[in-house]
UniProtKB/TrEMBL annotation, chain A:
Bias kind Low complexity: ranges: 56-67
Extent of Gly residues compositional bias: 68-79
Organism lineage string: Bacteria, Bacillati, Actinomycetota, Actinomycetes, Micrococcales
Acyl-CoA oxidase/dehydrogenase middle domain residues: 144-239
InterPro entries given in the database record: Acyl-CoA_Oxase/DH_mid-dom, Acyl-CoA_Oxase/DH_mid-dom_sf, AcylCo_DH-like_C, AcylCo_DH/oxidase_C, AcylCoA_DH/ox_N_sf, AcylCoA_DH/oxidase_NM_dom_sf
Protein name: Acyl-CoA dehydrogenase
GO molecular function list: acyl-CoA dehydrogenase activity; flavin adenine dinucleotide binding
Organism: Flexivirga caeni
Cofactor requirement: FAD
TrEMBL record, chain B:
Keywords: FAD, Flavoprotein, Oxidoreductase
Protein name, as recorded: Acyl-CoA dehydrogenase
Domain Acyl-CoA dehydrogenase/oxidase C-terminal: 314-440
Organism: Flexivirga caeni
Domain of life: Bacteria
Keyword Amino-acid biosynthesis attributed: no
């Protein structure tokens, strides 16, 4: 039966996530926006709560701290979609609970959500492609993800970092940038190619310990937003990695190798969409309050064109918010029910990404000087928002994914 | 206008209502479900058992009847608290029937109906046989609804408008009036007016007239007024874009009474009612008209429902229009995906260009967003939850993205989109209307 409400059973979980957003993140949002690269120690104090949330699927969720699989596991989206066993009837599971709880924590603060220990995107990769033995070894550690290189952004099939087998090790050489939580994580999942002449299928992911002497931190980026989250650049200089730390299948196959790595995105895109939805909610809630003080109250029953501009604009923003919110829930719901959701995940990411930028910038405009000044968080949210339309696939990459699926075109036809 | 027909036998009627559905749904797995089959058979039986007194006259006369005293309402659907996008077996069956009607009958007739500004008799007959206008009317009142569902109404409107919005509006206009009587009418009003609408051979036609011509019209503050005069109400004002105004058997109009917007039943033959043509940019098959009310006297008992009922009708009307926009936008998407991959320019299909492909992707994204908001609103109504925000959002998305999809649908075809060789120019005109129309439809 068609229904688009949040199941009641998620109530306690979401309440906890909301508490984390309001009680922990919000009070320190500005502090770590101003003190870029300082580690938010408050998150350590909250680690028990965060781990509790994580175990119940309420964390950022990409991590999947426990990656043993199985139907009882409520953790990350990555784990969730793989764990989804065909059941009779409708499933509201870990994918849905994850996006809903991320919406809450990101309503608090996107940067701090990304800085939550042990919830890195590397954990999502481990959950998606690691062997059971590897999951057991890495599952409890904090893993960052290193894909992007100075000359390779969206075109992740063109990475240049190389991995050469040498005895029982692989030797990695290359440069990696934009590694979220790269400084703080215990592990970095590095994408590298076994043979550049073989293209995407030769790309494998390697788990590199952060204290590996061949993995050198070059710098931390200074960013437009999400400053609470550290973004690292590394060089890999004859970095030796044990062969058993290559994730998944070490062979170069005609099919599947890169696809396997790319599948991580099907699982993480709804999460980033959820971040965008959460940030949008924060902007809309605060702007609604500020405009109410200024005497503006949108009336949903009245035609938009008969209302003051600010009220009509809020209605429009709320409408686009709701579309983004529901597209995100749909993508997660499909994953819970074992339905292929690659296109719907990209639809959610595309809509939520562009909508959150539009909403955040519009809210700054609607609130004027109050919106633009640092006394409110609106200007910070407008800076934070922009990354959500970029990482885990830019707006344009999402549109490519959607269009190729809709039109039945290959990547060589629709470039 | 009602078409005269020979009086049907009970068997005929059974066949035309339920059996028709079963026949059309025969290939569905859902019908292998014994529980569902028995439910459908029950509907069939009830509709066949009830006696119909078909009054087929030019200018239908509604003779006042007394009801049982307590009105019959559709039952609300059972609440369920989980996220799910799968329709019930019943809804899927009805949706499939609507889709078949849309694809086989309405879509091919759409262009000519737009030009002629009329609904072909064949289209009207087929829709009536499927009971499309009676989906909100309980079986006890001669309809086909086991339970009230705005969601079912939404799914049907989507499918019908995917065939053609103008025809869908023309056909479902009567459903709006029937639904008003079911949802807001007292038992006397139901007994007097509903049987004509549930007559499956010559069902009455109706129009829910809320729209007015002035810019910045707000349904909550109509200029049309109703004033008490003893046991009568006197109506004055003008209603615009009234669907099938010239042929409607029954009008339900909104008017300001004692400072409150209310619904009033107005038989079109009442002195003081005059009708003029009011053709618009789109939904032309619905043959919109201008309704003038000049010192129109109706019994005070023609007051339909309360002030909140009026607001409910306005909200459900907006939701219905949003659902119609979803259907037409889906038709646009279906068409442009094929066209852009077939059409070549500069040596390859135009879909190979990002500027084209991204436009198609954007249509799909905004369409799905709108559809989900519409579904959520309808599901909330069915659960008895407040849906004011969701309906407002659906309305806004229809007005902005719906219109945009209509425009992109023309743009992607270039000059071919501008000429009537393709349907795109009609969709452009229809989609503009869906975000601004009030009344006429109701789910």
């Amino acid at each position: 039966m068609i229904d688009l409400e949040v199941p009641r059973k998620f109530g306690p979980l979401l309440k906890q996530a909301a508490g984390l957003a309001d009680q922990v993140f919000r009070p320190i949002s500005r502090k770590y926006d101003l003190a870029e690269h300082d580690y938010p120690h408050e998150l350590d104090l909250m680690s028990a709560v965060i781990d509790g949330l994580s175990d119940s699927g309420a964390s950022q969720g990409a991590g999947a701290r426990t990656t043993s699989g199985g139907g009882s596991e409520p953790a990350g989206v990555g784990a969730g979609s793989r764990a989804a066993t065909p059941k009779s009837g409708n499933v509201n599971g870990s994918n849905l609970s994850s996006v809903l709880s991320i919406m809450q924590t990101c309503r608090g603060d996107v940067g701090l959500t990304l800085a939550l220990p042990r919830q890195g995107l590397g954990n999502a990769a481990i959950a998606a492609v690691a062997s059971p033995e590897q999951k057991a070894r890495f599952g409890t550690k904090w893993a960052a993800m290193a894909i992007t290189e100075p000359n390779t952004g969206s075109d992740s099939g063109a990475i240049r970092t190389t991995a050469v087998k040498d005895g029982e090790d692989y030797v990695l050489n290359g440069e990696k940038i934009f590694v979220t939580s790269g400084e703080r994580a215990e592990l970095v999942v590095v994408w590298a190619t076994l043979d550049r002449s073989l293209g995407k299928r030769a790309i494998k992911s390697f788990v590199v310990r952060r204290d590996n002497p061949g993995l050198k931190l070059v710098r931390l980026e200074h960013k437009l937003g999400i400053r609470a989250s550290d973004t690292a650049a590394f060089t890999l200089d004859n970095c030796r990695v044990p062969a058993h730390d290559l994730l998944g299948d070490p062979e170069i196959r005609i099919e599947g190798g890169f696809g396997g790595a790319m599948q991580t995105f099907d699982n993480t895109r709804p999460l980033v969409a959820a971040m965008a939805v959460g940030l949008s909610r924060a902007c809309l809630d605060r702007t609604t309050e500020l405009l109410a003080d200024a005497g503006i109250a949108p009336d949903p029953a009245a035609p938009a064109r008969t209302q003051p501009y600010a009220a009509a604009r809020l209605l429009q923003l709320e409408a686009d918010y709701e579309a983004a919110y529901l597209l995100t829930l749909r993508a997660a719901w499909m994953a819970d029910n074992g339905t292929p959701n690659s296109m719907q995940a990209s639809m959610a990411k595309a809509k939520a990404g562009r909508t959150c930028v539009e909403i955040a910038l519009a809210c700054v405009e609607l609130c004027g000087a109050t919106g633009y000044a640092e006394t409110e968080l609106l200007e910070k949210w407008a800076r934070d928002a922009k990354i959500l339309d970029i990482f885990e696939g830019t707006q344009q990459i999402q549109l490519l994914v959607v269009a190729r699926r809709l039109l039945g075109l290959s990547s060589s036809e629709l470039k | 206008m009602s078409q005269p027909h020979a009086k049907p036998t009970l068997a005929d009627r059974g066949q035309s209502l339920g059996m028709r559905l079963i026949t059309r749904a025969g290939g569905l797995d859902a019908m292998k479900n014994p529980a569902l089959r028995s439910k459908v058979e029950k509907v069939l039986y009830r509709s066949a058992r009830q006696g119909f007194k078909a009054q087929v006259t030019a200018g239908r006369v509604f003779s006042a009847r007394s009801g049982s005293g307590s009105p019959t309402r559709s039952r609300p659907t059972r609440p369920r608290a989980e996220f799910d996008l799968t329709p019930t077996d019943d809804q899927q069956m009805i949706r499939d029937a609507a889709r078949e009607l849309a694809e086989e009958v309405m879509r091919p007739a759409g262009a000519q109906a737009d030009t002629d500004r009329t609904v072909p008799a064949e289209v009207r007959d087929q829709a009536a046989q499927l009971g499309m206008a009676l989906l909100g009317v309980p079986t006890e009142l001669g309809g086909v609804a086991e339970e009230a569902s705005a969601l079912t109404g939404v799914l049907v409107l989507e499918e019908l408008s995917r065939g053609d919005m103008g025809l869908a509006v023309a056909l479902m206009s009567s459903a709006a009036v029937a639904n008003c009587l079911v949802n807001y009418g007292d038992s006397d009003q139901q007994a007097t007016y509903l049987p004509a609408f549930t007559d499956d051979q010559a069902p009455a036609t109706g129009a829910l007239a809320i729209m007015e011509p002035q810019p910045l019209f707000d349904p909550a503050a109509p200029r049309t007024t109703a004033t008490h005069d003893g046991a009568e109400l006197i109506l004055d004002g003008t209603k615009s874009l009234v669907v099938g105004a010239g042929t409607a058997d029954l009008l339900v109009v909104s008017a300001l009474l004692d400072g409150e917007p209310r619904l009033v039943i107005v038989p079109p033959a009442t002195p003081g009612v005059t009708i003029a043509d009011d053709p618009a940019m789109g939904i032309r098959a619905a043959r919109t008209g201008l309704l003038h009310l000049n010192q129109v006297r109706v019994p005070a008992t023609n007051l339909l429902g309360s002030e909140p009922d009026h607001a409910d009708a306005v909200a459900r009307g907006r939701l219905a229009w949003a659902a119609a926009a979803v259907g037409t936008a889906q038709a646009v998407l279906d068409q442009v995906t094929g066209y852009t991959t077939d059409r070549t320019a500069f040596g390859e299909p135009i879909a190979h260009r990002q500027a084209v492909a991204f436009t198609v992707a954007d249509i799909a994204i905004e369409l799905d967003g709108l559809r989900l908001v519409v579904w959520r609103a309808a599901a909330r109504l069915d659960r008895g939850l407040d849906a004011a925000d969701q309906i407002a959002h659906a309305r806004v998305l229809t007005a902005t993205h719906g219109s945009r999809i209509g425009s992109d649908g023309v743009q992607l075809l270039g000059g071919h989109g501008f000429v009537k060789e393709f349907d795109n120019e009609r969709w452009y005109r229809d989609l503009r209307g869906a975000g601004l129309m009030e009344g006429a439809l109701l789910v």
